[in-house]
TrEMBL record:
<dbReference type="InterPro" id="IPR012359">
    <property type="entry name" value="MazG-related_YpjD"/>
</dbReference>
<keyword id="KW-0378">Hydrolase</keyword>
<dbReference type="InterPro" id="IPR004518">
    <property type="entry name" value="MazG-like_dom"/>
</dbReference>
<dbReference type="GO" id="GO:0016787">
    <property type="term" value="F:hydrolase activity"/>
</dbReference>
<protein>
    <submittedName>
        <fullName>Nucleotide pyrophosphohydrolase</fullName>
    </submittedName>
</protein>
<feature type="domain" description="NTP pyrophosphohydrolase MazG-like">
    <location>
        <begin position="23"/>
        <end position="99"/>
    </location>
</feature>
<dbReference type="InterPro" id="IPR047046">
    <property type="entry name" value="YpjD/YvdC"/>
</dbReference>
<dbReference type="Pfam" id="PF03819">
    <property type="entry name" value="MazG"/>
</dbReference>
Amino acid sequence: MNIQNAQLDVDSWIKEHGVRYFNELTNMAQLTEEVGEVARIIARRYGEQSEKESDKNKDLGEELADVVFVVLCLANQTGVNLQEAFDKKMDLKSKRDHDRHHNNEKLK
Protein backbone atom coordinates (compact mmCIF):
# COMPACT_ATOMS: atom_id res chain seq x y z
CA MET A 1 0.00 0.00 0.00
CA ASN A 2 1.31 3.39 -0.98
CA ILE A 3 0.21 5.91 1.63
CA GLN A 4 -0.18 8.72 -0.87
CA ASN A 5 -2.52 6.57 -2.98
CA ALA A 6 -4.41 5.52 0.14
CA GLN A 7 -4.96 9.19 0.99
CA LEU A 8 -6.35 9.74 -2.50
CA ASP A 9 -8.57 6.65 -2.19
CA VAL A 10 -10.00 7.88 1.10
CA ASP A 11 -10.59 11.34 -0.33
CA SER A 12 -12.42 9.85 -3.32
CA TRP A 13 -14.51 7.66 -1.02
CA ILE A 14 -15.45 10.64 1.16
CA LYS A 15 -16.52 12.64 -1.90
CA GLU A 16 -18.50 9.76 -3.39
CA HIS A 17 -20.04 8.13 -0.32
CA GLY A 18 -19.42 10.28 2.72
CA VAL A 19 -20.73 13.67 1.57
CA ARG A 20 -17.92 15.48 3.45
CA TYR A 21 -15.27 14.89 6.10
CA PHE A 22 -16.38 15.01 9.72
CA ASN A 23 -14.64 17.93 11.40
CA GLU A 24 -11.20 17.34 12.89
CA LEU A 25 -12.43 17.07 16.48
CA THR A 26 -15.07 14.51 15.51
CA ASN A 27 -12.46 12.50 13.62
CA MET A 28 -10.09 12.69 16.60
CA ALA A 29 -12.84 11.30 18.83
CA GLN A 30 -13.57 8.62 16.23
CA LEU A 31 -9.86 7.73 16.08
CA THR A 32 -9.79 7.35 19.85
CA GLU A 33 -12.83 5.08 19.66
CA GLU A 34 -11.26 2.91 16.96
CA VAL A 35 -7.97 2.63 18.87
CA GLY A 36 -10.01 1.57 21.90
CA GLU A 37 -11.56 -1.23 19.86
CA VAL A 38 -8.08 -2.41 18.83
CA ALA A 39 -6.94 -2.22 22.47
CA ARG A 40 -9.92 -4.30 23.60
CA ILE A 41 -9.10 -7.09 21.14
CA ILE A 42 -5.39 -7.05 21.98
CA ALA A 43 -6.00 -6.99 25.75
CA ARG A 44 -8.37 -9.92 25.61
CA ARG A 45 -6.89 -12.02 22.86
CA TYR A 46 -3.18 -11.52 23.56
CA GLY A 47 -3.18 -10.08 27.08
CA GLU A 48 -4.26 -11.46 30.41
CA GLN A 49 -7.93 -10.48 30.27
CA SER A 50 -10.44 -13.15 29.32
CA GLU A 51 -12.15 -12.70 25.98
CA LYS A 52 -15.92 -12.43 26.07
CA GLU A 53 -17.82 -14.75 23.76
CA SER A 54 -19.23 -11.71 21.96
CA ASP A 55 -15.68 -10.47 21.20
CA LYS A 56 -14.32 -13.72 19.76
CA ASN A 57 -15.55 -12.93 16.25
CA LYS A 58 -14.08 -9.42 16.18
CA ASP A 59 -11.58 -8.99 13.36
CA LEU A 60 -8.37 -7.29 14.48
CA GLY A 61 -7.43 -6.51 10.88
CA GLU A 62 -10.73 -4.75 10.30
CA GLU A 63 -10.30 -2.68 13.45
CA LEU A 64 -6.73 -1.74 12.50
CA ALA A 65 -8.01 -0.73 9.06
CA ASP A 66 -10.57 1.52 10.75
CA VAL A 67 -7.70 3.25 12.58
CA VAL A 68 -5.78 3.71 9.31
CA PHE A 69 -8.87 5.09 7.57
CA VAL A 70 -9.46 7.76 10.22
CA VAL A 71 -5.75 8.67 10.31
CA LEU A 72 -5.87 9.14 6.53
CA CYS A 73 -8.97 11.33 6.91
CA LEU A 74 -7.18 13.51 9.45
CA ALA A 75 -4.12 13.77 7.24
CA ASN A 76 -6.24 14.79 4.25
CA GLN A 77 -8.25 17.42 6.05
CA THR A 78 -5.22 18.98 7.74
CA GLY A 79 -3.08 19.05 4.59
CA VAL A 80 -0.52 16.48 5.75
CA ASN A 81 1.27 14.44 3.10
CA LEU A 82 1.42 11.28 5.19
CA GLN A 83 3.70 9.45 2.73
CA GLU A 84 6.28 12.21 3.05
CA ALA A 85 5.89 12.38 6.83
CA PHE A 86 6.14 8.59 7.19
CA ASP A 87 9.24 8.37 4.99
CA LYS A 88 10.87 11.15 7.00
CA LYS A 89 9.97 9.42 10.29
CA MET A 90 11.37 6.07 9.10
CA ASP A 91 14.63 7.74 8.11
CA LEU A 92 14.85 9.49 11.49
CA LYS A 93 14.08 6.33 13.45
CA SER A 94 16.58 4.30 11.40
CA LYS A 95 19.37 6.72 12.17
CA ARG A 96 18.42 7.43 15.78
CA ASP A 97 17.37 4.01 17.01
CA HIS A 98 19.55 1.46 15.20
CA ASP A 99 22.35 1.26 17.75
CA ARG A 100 20.08 2.07 20.67
CA HIS A 101 17.96 -1.04 20.15
CA HIS A 102 20.89 -3.30 19.30
CA ASN A 103 22.62 -2.22 22.50
CA ASN A 104 19.54 -2.56 24.71
CA GLU A 105 20.10 -5.45 27.12
CA LYS A 106 16.36 -5.74 27.71
CA LEU A 107 15.86 -6.78 24.07
CA LYS A 108 18.41 -9.62 24.10
